[in-house]
Design a protein that fits this description.
With 316 residues, the protein is mostly helical. Helices cover 78% and strands 0% of the residues. 40% of the residues are buried. Belongs to the ABC-3 integral membrane protein family.
């Protein structure tokens, strides 16, 4: 508990809680759409925003938000077109964003290699009071959108055509989801790092899916797991003097492995219990008259079956 005596650790833990909530809350929609690596691509683009912040001596977080939002909109527009060159365009966007960010950081006089490392891998020492205010404001927007529009976002993630038929603004919701993913990347980059933020958006969701079946239960479990690994990762990085980003991601992967190992025997036990119970049996007694009528009808049917002359098909 001694780490709570330091202001920077208090800020780091608060930021970890916010990141643990927002990353899985957005990541579950990306997993549903099979776009698990979208956060990784946005993280590459965000490095350009960080470089612009260093170059113009402004807040790297706000510049990263601006660049990430623009990049996410471009990514969504390219994805919606569905042409064969889309993958090539996205690849150039991702790697061009990383290369441009590195160049901008190298020519700026404000940042050195240590500052860039803190954005790439996360650092608990770099969360300033101003950064915490920005993170809290952006996290509030992400949580409000992902929870308030959960039904609509779930609909477009499951079946865009059905959502369009029902009258939902599919294009607008797709762009909104891409923007929320971009904002989440900038929220998490000071704690997890730009290179690892996608893992915190995906791994807790994949781990929660091992034990849950409904969308709401999976989202709640993923958020709870994200907060747990984020807080434990930050606390462990303080104790062991390690970077917070890799610590959080490795804890999330370990949680996924444990839940996957526990899910297999649970599934076998449920299957065995269902097999031992046997088929469902009707325990409602039939009235005697109905039973007698059924029996007589069965006897009559058997008699007609034995007498070919009474068969309708043969009579015709």
């Amino acid at each position: 508990m001694e780490m709570l005596q330091y202001d920077f650790m208090q800020r780091a833990l608060i930021a970890a809680v916010l990141v643990g909530v927002t990353a899985p809350a957005v990541g579950i929609y990306l997993v549903q759409r099979r776009q698990a690596l979208m956060g990784d691509g946005i993280g590459h683009v965000a490095l350009t925003g960080v470089g612009l912040g260093f170059l113009f001596q402004t807040s790297p977080v706000w510049m990263a938000v601006l660049v990430c939002v623009l990049g996410a909109i471009v990514m969504e527009l390219v994805r919606s077109r569905g042409n064969q060159r889309g993958d090539i365009a996205l690849a150039m966007l991702f790697y061009g964003g990383m290369a441009c960010g590195k160049l901008l950081v190298s020519v700026s006089a404000q940042a050195g290699s240590g500052s860039l490392e803190s954005y790439l891998w996360g650092s608990i020492l770099t969360v300033s009071p101003g950064d915490l205010t920005v993170i809290a404001a952006l996290a509030a927007v992400v949580i409000a959108v992902t929870l308030g529009l959960r039904r609509q976002l779930f609909a477009i993630c499951q079946d865009e055509e059905f959502a369009r038929v029902t009258g939902l603004p599919v294009r607008l919701l797709n762009l909104l989801l891409a923007v929320m993913a971009a904002v989440t990347v900038t929220v998490a980059m000071r704690v997890v790092g730009l290179l690892l933020v996608s893992a915190l958006m995906v791994v807790p969701v994949a781990a929660a899916q091992q034990l849950t079946r409904s969308f709401a239960a999976t989202q709640a479990a993923a958020v709870a797991l994200g907060v747990t690994v984020a807080v434990l990762g930050v606390a462990g990085s303080y104790q062991a003097d390690l970077p917070s980003g890799p610590s959080i991601v490795l804890l999330a992967i370990a949680a996924f492995a444990l839940l996957s190992a526990a899910a297999t025997p649970l599934a076998r036990r449920r299957h065995r219990a269902a097999a031992d119970a046997g088929p469902a049996v009707c325990d409602v007694a039939l009235p005697e008259q109905r039973t007698a009528a059924t029996a007589s009808g069965a006897d009559g049917g058997a008699a007609r079956a034995e007498d070919p002359s009474t068969s309708p098909g043969l009579a015709q």
